[in-house]
Amino acid sequence: MRVLLTGGAGFIGTHVHDQLLAEGHEVTVLDSFRPDVHAARPARSPGLVVGDIRRADAVTRALDGVDTVIHLAAKVGLGVHLDDIDDYVSSNSLGTAVLLKSLGNIRNLVYASSMVVYGEGRYDCDDHGQVAPGPRRTEDLEQGRFEPPCPHCGAPLRPGLVTEDAALDPRNAYAASKLNGEHLAAAWARETGGRVTALRFHNVYGPGMPRNTPYAGVAAIFRSALERGEIPRVFEDGRQRRDFVHVRDVAAAVTLSAAALPRQPPFTAYNVGSGTVTTIGEVAAELARAYGGPRPVVTGEYRLGDVRHITAASDRLKNELGWKPAYDLQTGLEDLLHSAG
Ligand code: UD1
């Protein structure tokens, strides 16, 4: 493949770049080197276009000679501050739109999406079956009631695994802009006869994970705390569930999906998770143990925009494309601790 990789200098992008080169593909990277993510501007190098995805001239230049596009460039993070709402829409929605408009005869697109498009994960009530709880109320969180109750009877719910056909319910600006990108790409595919695969990433971690930026995921935050000799602080009661997927497994999913595009229907969505459900408390404990640091403290703090449980079934990606994550959580967290990034 001759690939344009947008966001190729970022955390996931760097690993995808390595994987593409290892597989023998030709790669052009387009990256804006956002100052809130990258401390320094890069040296000039062949195969790198420094430019903003919203600038059609930069995008067109980067697309020269390309047959497949992997679109990772985005403003990531929590998406809960209203101050950032226009930046999310501009970077993610408008950025995707400019890219789509510039694609010309290119028909193959991988789009980086997120599990956040589902909102809260899957829940079942003993009496009401599968239900969709609304956003958690501040007064419940204040009182330490972290589990969302059944919206019909208030009973406790059983969390489960989300599949790709679950209802989409983005609950913050980041999630809304990511889902908007999926919709725009699907519209492009219908209009042009192109094919797009949207990869809904779970909590990605591993070497090169951003730290001390607004984009730092919890595993990087815990690692930084341990390195400073501080106690990792686990929010809520630590029993919120996630699926942590290693960045090299994610990179493999990206390149596999890109290579499969010519055989795909106009729009496909795949969840990308390790398949192992874990809690934030367990991740903190495992990192502290592996580092030999102090035991984490469960603080009861909360972030209003957080969902309680979100865990995915990634069977579609495994069954259809033969993807197989290589890292279990323990090995992956050791890798995170011992990496330089
Ligand atoms: C993460 C990503 C999001 C991605 C999503 C996909 C980040 C910042 N967010 O969201 O972009 O779309 O996965 O599933 O990478 N927590 C603590 N202590 C802390 C910080 C956080 O206990 O010091 C808790 C949070 O309250 C939350 C959990 O850790 O319950 C995970 O937080 P975070 O790493 O920010 O990830 P997500 O919100 O799941």
Q: How would you describe this structure to a colleague?
A:
This protein is an alpha/beta fold. It has a single domain, classed as Rossmann fold (3-Layer(aba) Sandwich). The protein is 34% helix and 18% strand. It has helices at 11-22, 56-62, 85-102, 138-142, 173-192, 218-227, 247-260, 280-291, 315-321, 329-338; strands at 2-6, 26-31, 48-50, 68-71, 108-114, 122-125, 129-131, 158-160, 195-201, 203-205, 233-234, 241-242, 244-246, 267-272, 278-279, 297-298. The strands form 5 sheets. Strands 3-2-1-4-5-9-14 form a 7-stranded parallel beta sheet, with helices on both faces. The protein has a 3-stranded antiparallel beta sheet with strand order 7-6-8, with no helix packed on it. Helix 3 (85-102) runs parallel beside helix 5 (173-192) and helix 6 (218-227) runs parallel beside helix 8 (280-291). It is globular and about 55 Å long. The model has no long low-confidence stretch (mean pLDDT 94). The structure holds uridine-diphosphate-N-acetylglucosamine. Uridine-diphosphate-N-acetylglucosamine binds at residues 76-78, 114-116, 201-203, 215, 217-218, 221, 233-235, 240, 242, 280, 303, 306, 310. Residues 3-123, 163-273 form the NAD-dependent epimerase/dehydratase domain. InterPro entries: Epimerase_deHydtase, Lipid_A_modif_metabolic_enz, NAD(P)-bd_dom_sf. This is NAD-dependent epimerase/dehydratase family protein.
